[in-house]
Amino acid sequence: MACVYIPVQNSEEEVRVALDQLPRDASDILDILKAEQAPLDLWLVIAREYFKQGKIDQFRQILEEGSSPEIDEYYADVRYERIAILNALGAYYSYLGKIETKQREKEEHFILATQYYNKASRIDMHEPSTWVGKGQLLLAKGEVEQAFAAFKIVLDGDRDNVPALLGQACVEFNRGRYSDSLELYKRALQVHPDCPGAVRLGIGLCRYKLGQLEKARQAFQRVLQLDPENVEALVALAIMDMRTNKAGGIRRGVEKMHRAFEIYPYCAMALNYLANHFFFTGQHFLVEQLTETALAVTNHGPTKSHSYYNLARSYHSKGDYEKAGLYYMASVKEINKPHAFIFPYYGLGQVQLKLGDFRSSLSNFEKVLEVYPDNCETLRVLGHIYVQLGQMEKGQEFMRKATKVDPRDAQAFLDLGELLISSDTGAALDAFKTARGLLKRGGLEVPVELLNNIGVIHFERGELELAEQSLKEAVGDGIWRSFIEGKVNVGAADATACNRIYKDVQIFTQLEADNVNLELPWNKVTALFNLARLLEQLHKMEIASILYRLIIYKYPDYIDAYLRLAAISKARNNIQLSIELVNDALKVNEKCPNALSMLGELELKNDDWVKAKETFRAASEAADGKDSYSTLSLGNWNYFAAMRNEKRAPKLEATHLEKAKELYTKVLVQHNSNLYAANGAGVVLAEKGQFDVSKDMFTQVQEAASGSIFIQLPDVWINIAHVYFAQGNFPLAVKMYQNCLRKFYHDTDSHILLYLARTHYEAEQWQDCKKTLLRAIHLSPANYVLRFDAGVAMQKFSASTLQKSKRTADEVRSAVAELENAVRVFSQMAAGANLHYHGFDEKKIDTHVGYCKHLLEAAKVHCEAAQREEEQARQRQELARQLALAEEARRKAEEQRKKQLEKRKLEDEQKRVQQQEEHFRRVKEQWKSSTSASKRRERSDADDEEGGHSEKRRRKGGKRRRKERSSKSQYEMEEAEVDDQEYEDAPLNYGEPADQMHDQDDNAEENAQDVLAAAGLEDSDAEDEGVPPPNASRRRKAWSESDEEEEERRPESSPVRENSAELQESDGEFGADNEKPNQDEAVEDED
Amino acid sequence: MKLAGLKSVENAHDESVWATAWVPATEARPALLLTGSLDETVKLWRPDELALERTNAGHFLGVVSVAAHPSGVIAASASIDSFVRVFDVDTNATIATLEAPPSEVWQMQFDPKGTTLAVAGGGSASIKLWDTATWDLIATLSVPRPEQPKPSDKGNKKFVLSVAWSPDGKRLACGSMDGTISIFDVARSKFLHHLEGHFMPVRSLVYSPVEPRLLFSASDDAHVHMYDAEGKSLVGSMSGHASWVLSVDVSPDGAAIATGSSDRTVRLWDLSTRAAVQTMSNHSDQVWGVAFRPMAGAGVRGGGRLASVSDDKSISLYDYS
């Protein structure tokens, strides 16, 4: 039992004070000490003992009494002990100041401490222990440099002063000069080998900081050997164990932490680490307990920050973002420089992101990035935030940087791809592909979503084979594979089932009965749907429909599958089934705008106008008017209504048109790049005659539409063509129609052929017009209107040919043939009119027949004339031939004569002259009226020459001549006659039709119409599609039809488009759990 | 099985070629290919060089259909003006001109025995049967009309486009604009039943030469259906064309069918897998007709020929093996 003996004054006796039995009231002891004038060191001993026993008040009481002025006076010469007492008080107050958290009191403590030390210094400037104390104080105050100076003074005096060495080591440690610090600790240990474990702790820490982990470990272990309950060493070792990142190490570390915790439950460091550990094991309750304790016991900023961080993290992972945010904030507040401890910034950023506070989040992540400029995740998050803030470029820049920083981070490429999907599909595809490559190389399973996205992008870019590959890979193995490969026989359907083939699920029940596994994992549904959509694009409708049905069979709520099936049956014109399927979809969700819109379309197809309008309204309401499609449909409805009214109610028409325009404009305001709305607006403009504006509009729409595989907008081509047509630019209109036919309809649309025919008609290219109409008839044989139009075209061709001033007989003949064809066509129609309904007025056809027949009769004269002309031509040729023959004969005869002449030259000249004269006279008489040329004279000369020789021959020649003459005159006569006839007949010939044709001359366009009007053939706009008056109604009809088609096109593409929209939207969910954004997204995706 | 292009004749006609048929070989000459065109002519070609044998004029408005008598001696051609011209193949002498106003003429076919010519009568919603000896109209098989035709229906839904004889000559099938196929008992001149499943025009029909009940139909809905024509059931449905299927024919061995489509391709389908095995895209416009050459004699394998005609004015010949 330790005791102190207080010597009794003026005696040899001593008062024995057992140190473990110090009186509770220090005044008792003080009284004794004062009364006996005990040496000051005893005061110190007793005070220290009180301190050790935790009786701080008593300790302070004694020391304060021991440093009071009267003591100073009384013990003036006992310098060392007085200094010791003051130093003890100084040390006590520095300690108080060090642990005090409140700034003001902290400072007060430090001030007191400083005062005591200064007092001690006044007693002896050179007392080393004072300097050591001052050093400690300065260290506690964080004034490292001054502390260094203080310790240096001591060490200069005595380089082996252990406390100074330790202090200096501490200074160096704080300055970050760990090797210097280590040296100092080592020296302290050399000087004082028995010093407490704490010294070795310092060594261990230095070694740790210097990265000499093994030596550090040894040092810590040595500390523990000396003092098995040294918490710091335990914690240090535990941390080192944990840092090994191996399961065993972590377990050992946690065990050590536990021990440290048991030894001293208030070590904040240990608490934090334990909390950290329990965070990872998911024991959030413990985390909160431990960190709260840690917070209660420490005032050390970084440690507190760490505790707050742990707490925040715990709440964060529990999804309590508000609280997590608060604690992160608290944690951040404890940090002076982000460099020291960056994690809470990251966490805060995440929470803020989650709570939608993008700007704050951004600044926090940027701080993280300052510290770790190459941190991929931070770069990615920043990228996302910028995207959320609408700064696409910047977002992409960050994403790109992230991929550059770590070109093997599949996740970064994935994110980049998702980011790019809306703006640059090509780049997105590259990113996705890289991600896929990385995952594959890493031996990881490529997520279905990624493959699906790759597939969809390929699909969108029209690279269908690649898309198929990717999507097939995405869906993997399953029953669908057998369907695609045709291994499962789809089976026969009986007569009643054939019409409902797309609703048949019997095959699946059958397969299930055969124990075939039909499992379809939820995460593959989207990919399977897209695959089916792709097969549809590849025209493998059967397989596509089975896949859709499989989806419905397994997931009866998958509306898009119903709609696709409905679209397929609609494309096959199975309207009834299509309506049923849409109704199935509506059973799942009666407010699904897509389904409602589709239903409206189908009702329109069924000519159910009022119902359709209601349905479109409902669709529009279901989507809060935000669904452009239903608005557009309503616009179209109004447009049709305006155009449909055959009775022409201008007022109604104007209202409908205005309404249509309003609706189109509404859509355009919502989505200024909506092609369909622009097209519609263009149509309304064109309707109002503003062709230039509408043409510009159409052209722009056409350009925009040419980019994507999903946008099939032939209507705009047709509309442009219509505008060209309306402006009289026929060649361009023809070109446009033809391109459109070829590009979009595989040349199968008889309507466009009809437009084309009409353009040819207007351009007066009758044969082209007829051929075009025949093609149209061939495509759509049941359309009698086309036959009628063909008849009209032929009639027009003939009429215009006959009316030409110059024409060949062939032309006339072909005109007549065409007229006969026209008559046949018309009369066939007339005969068939009773038999079947084709919307023609019998009378009208009769009128046409009558007109054609009349024309035909008139043409007969032409025909005869032409034939006569031809006959004449033939005769003319014959004559020429005969003339040539005669010439030949004459030449021969002449030669002969010449020979004879030679022979008879010597014969009587006199006689010959006489004869010649006579003959000449005769000849003169004979040819008086003849206009024979010199040739003839020549011949007559020759005749004269030979004349007299043979009467017989002469007579012969005369005869021949006569013959010649007669034929010649006949010819002339004939010619004259023909001429006469022609001149005379002209008015007679043409008779009635001639008037018409003159009209035609004047007025190439209106003619037929006028005539027809006169003949009662008006009223053509409704039925007579080929030959309407050249006013707007025809065009309108055309437009309205093309619009109808526009509507047909749209729903086809919409489901997948929406799908991809889903993919894009899923980006928004980033951040809840930053480590795994993709899984989250997968969920969103499939939902 | 596969197709190999043998020969193509560009500008075989001045205009679109719309119809084709093989004239069976006679003792004097091999089988000939018959084609009809919008240019109002019918041409005869000698395989395999596709040398032009003769050009027959005499039609007005485009030639929409050609058919050959099984004997190979006579043939018929029909045009939009609704005349059928029956002529001697070798001399081009007109044997008869048939018309049955107001009925139009679309597809036509001689029965397997050669005693009757069946003509699809368009808007008359009937098939006209002509005796090939006397060239008299012997029967009109009418497609039953729906009870109450809706006034809003444009045109005639039962417009008959295509016609096909069963190999035994007992049944006639006809396809109409609304996609229904009607089956008739020829001997009794009686309508039997409809085959449903198409809802768009059926432009071509053909019975399998091997399985007498099996009927193939080509429709504008881009599908080819396989029906059991007696059992009224849809055996299978084949899709793959991007547009209308305009023509279908079965190979003489009954193992494959060929189709021609508006998507400008000719496809060969393996009936055992019901999948397209080959797609020929040598035509640059719609393919209006495909025709397998009938087997020259029993037991002759190989040497199969397929001809196709197109809007691009060309005709093509392929080797089928």
From TrEMBL, chain A:
TPR repeats lie at residues 162-195, 197-230, 342-375, 376-409. Residues 972-985 have a biased composition (Acidic residues). Residues 951-965 have a biased composition (Basic residues). Gene3D superfamilies: Tetratricopeptide repeat domain. The keyword tRNA processing does not apply. SMART domains: TPR. Keywords: Repeat, TPR repeat. Residues 890-1087 are annotated as: Disordered. PROSITE patterns: TPR. GO terms for molecular function: RNA polymerase II complex binding. GO terms for biological process: regulation of DNA-templated transcription; transcription elongation by RNA polymerase II. It holds the Pfam family TPR_16. Residues 890-927 have a biased composition (Basic and acidic residues). SUPFAM superfamilies: TPR-like (SSF48452). GO terms for cellular component: Cdc73/Paf1 complex. This is Protein CTR9 homolog.
TrEMBL record, chain B:
This is WD repeat-containing protein VIP3. PROSITE patterns: WD_REPEATS_1 (PS00678), WD_REPEATS_2 (PS50082), WD_REPEATS_REGION (PS50294). WD repeats lie at residues 10-45, 56-97, 153-194, 195-237, 238-279. InterPro entries: SKI8, WD40/YVTN_repeat-like_dom_sf, WD40_PAC1, WD40_repeat_CS, WD40_repeat_dom_sf, WD40_rpt. It comes from the Eukaryota. GO terms for cellular component: Cdc73/Paf1 complex. Keywords: Repeat, WD repeat. Signal peptide: none annotated. It holds the Pfam family WD40. The keyword Hydrolase does not apply.
